[in-house]
Amino acid sequence: MTSPTATKAISASGLRYRKVRDRVIEALLLAAGLVAVFTTLAIVAILLYESSAFFEHVSIVDFLTDTLWTPLFADAHYGIMPLVAGTLTTTMVALVVAVPLGTTIAIYLSEFAPHHVRETVKPILELLGAVPTVVYGYFALTMVTPVLQWLMPELPGFNMLSAGLVIGLMIVPYVSSVSEDAMRAVPRYMREGSYAMGATRLQTALRVVVPGAFSGLAAAFILGISRAVGETMVVAIAAGMQPNLTFDPREPAATITAYIVQVSLGDLPHGSIGYQSIFAAGLVLMFLTLIFNIIGFSLTRRFREAY
Amino acid sequence: MSAGGAAAYLSSEALRRGLSRRKILDQVFVLVGLIVMIACLAVLAILFIDLVRDGAPRFGWEFFTNFASRRAERAGILAAWVGTSLIMLVTALCAVPVGVAAAIYLEEYAPKNWFTAIIEINVTNLAGVPSIVYGLLALGLFVYQFDLGQSIAAAGLTLALLILPIVIVATREAIRAVPKAIREAAYGLGATRWEVTKDHVLPYSTGGILTGMILGLSRAIGETAPIITIGALSFIAFLPQSPVTSEFPFISFAWLKDPFTAMPIQMFNWVSRPDQAFQANAAAAGAILLGMTLIMNALAIWIRYRFRKKINW
Asked: What's the CA gap between B308 and B71, in Å, rounded?
């Protein structure tokens, strides 16, 4: 070998240079990886720091037990319950839509649909999850609510039902995609065993594949719940922004996320109690997400089938 | 059941009836599955058609060249689309290098230990954090601690953090799909780890990385909540300072600190007005936003398909 680069690469100094360069690059790559860790730490730190300032003014007992949330009024009450109720109600409505639809689509795609149908439909379904949420909000307010009002004439223009239904539709692709992956991971021989016993495809799907993939289905539902709990724009547009302690989806109410948007739209001074209250609300949101994830994790662990 | 009983059952009318009932149920489910699936796809179509129809009277050159206005028929999205473009620029420039680098580290360099596990768990968890929480993070950190203010830079960085997990996960999948044999061959010739990565692994995974980048940006372009939280204004009648100037050095970064509005914010502002005339503006902005998202997703699918076809291990 006589080319200059080859000589340089083989020479001792060239080798050392390449090794040093490798170490430097590795350090840079590690730094990029650490950005994820720092982001998590920063989220926790900011939420705790700003909330602690909030809890200097508001006792935790009031925060958890007061039934009014009126931080921006002269007669300020800081009870998080109404916002939590709004969040849980829209989430429930969304799940009532997304779980049956998502699971049905997943069973159909995984156990019944021919290969080319599955390959065409999956990417299109995923587009449903890619639509900007503000567009879904418009859809809820201008199309779904009028239809619901036609069915139930006494329904107010802002209500949690319409927002929840649209969120449900929005998370169908998340639920169906993760559930389908889980069902496809059930080994073929289990289906064949079932067919050999004379079961139909539907019986196999419901009695063999679904129980076998249960931990994956649980994970899919939890993913859907976290999406629904954190969804912001649909509820901010279609559910109204009035905190309202109710579990009746026909009523207007604010969710935790809608409250944060409402405050951000105004111009609250940095450091005021209203400003701090959105961080306290964010902390509760993180707690809710965390609780659902822990439930999901334990479900997944309990029902895991190893093949 | 005795042997004789079983034989009798197998030839009985009861068995045949049960069998045909189960087969009918099977067919019924196929029908239900198809209907549900088509209904969901129809929603997407209805959504798009409805937006285009409602927004139709607003489509025109002026819609793109006018600022927001109190008169619905004169209001346009000039500040919004310029703002969105600049934010996307910042987001892409931050999220793609960091995300790809993090993915390379996790796939090619990281030792299997608790420390790597922590990074991996963090990436997974970040993907599940509600987007509005990123807004709160940015409000506390970028807007006030780093003193970026309610600026394009703050918004771009926020969305970059938001799509970082998407870019990392997509890049890791692309890198993992490169067969081990290719790496071993390069190591066998004396290449260092970085040389293997740069000359062999990355070129083969370009398709997957591009797909992840586009999907990430298509997510970022429609995100509304986090940039409302950091305080985007919804009524802006001026443009940020131009990134290109007439004097040396011809490029200016002053726009990074300028206040801004963005497409989804503009749409949200119009949707929340009680005046019906503004709903048409909202629909037109929504149609453009949705169109951009769909085009980006289609592009991602196309790139994935092309690269998959081109590479034969």
From this structure: 50
Which residues lie closer than 8 Å to A17 by C-beta, 6 or more apart? none
**For residue B285, what is the nearest residue in chain A, using CA coordinates?**
A135
Do A29 and A145 reside in the same domain of the chain?
no
In this structure, what CATH number is given to the domain that contains residue A229? 1.10.3720.10
Domain residue limits at A93: 81-302
What is the predicted ipTM? Answer: 0.86
Q: Do A39 and B264 touch (CB under 8 A)?
A: no
How many folded domains does chain A comprise?
2
Please, are residues A127 and A202 in contact by the beta-carbon 8 Å criterion? no
The rounded distance, in Å, linking the Cα atoms of A286 and B132 is: 10
Residue of chain B whose alpha carbon sits nearest to that of A128: B44
A67 is a domain residue:
no
A145, A8: one domain: no
- Say which of B19, B126, B230 has its CB closest to residue A39: B126
Residue A9 sits in the same domain as residue A92: no
List the pLDDT tens digit at each of the 313 positions of chain B. Answer: 456 677 777 777 888 888 888 889 888 998 998 899 888 888 888 888 888 888 777 777 777 777 777 776 777 778 888 888 888 999 999 999 999 999 999 998 888 888 888 888 888 888 888 999 999 998 888 888 887 777 888 889 999 999 999 999 999 988 998 889 989 999 898 888 899 998 989 988 888 899 889 989 998 998 888 988 887 666 666 667 666 666 666 666 666 777 778 888 888 888 888 777 788 888 888 888 998 898 998 888 888 888 777 766 6
Please give the full DSSP string across A121-142, using - where no structure is assigned. Answer: HHHHHHHHHHS-HHHHHHHIII
C-alpha A250/C-alpha B33 separation (Å) is 29
A40, A105, A293: residue with CB nearest B37: A105
Among partner residues B23, B40, B215, which is closest to A172 by beta-carbon distance? B40
User: B123–A36: do the CB atoms touch at under 8 Å?
Assistant: yes
Give domain status of residue A95, yes or no: yes
| B32–A35 C-beta distance less than 8 A | no
Domain identity same for A16 and A111: no
Which residues, including other chains, have CB under 8 Å from residue B88's CB and lie 6 or more apart?
B156, B159, B217, B220, B221
Peptide bond into B57 cis (omega under 30): no
* In-domain check, residue A69: no
* A41 and A178 fall within a common domain: no
Within-domain flag for A74: no
> A164 with A206, same domain?
yes
Residues of B in contact with A105 (CB under 8 A): 33, 36-37, 40
Please count the residue pairs, one from chain A and one from chain B, whose beta carbons lie less than 8 angstroms apart.
252
CB contacts of B164 in chain A (<8 Å) are 35-36, 39
User: A139 or B68, which is more confident?
Assistant: A139
Mean pLDDT, range A77-106, rounded to an integer: 91
Check whether residue A96 and residue A174 sit in a common domain: yes
The answer to whether residues A215 and A259 belong to one domain is yes
Given an 8 Å threshold on Cβ–Cβ distance, is B267 in contact with A135? yes
CA dihedral sign of residues B166, A261, B274, B63: negative
Transcribe A236-297 into DSSP letters.
HHHS-S-------TTS----HHHHHHHHHHS-PPTTSHHHHHHHHHHHHHHHHHHHHHHHHH
Please report residues of A whose CB lies closer than 8 A to that of B301: 123
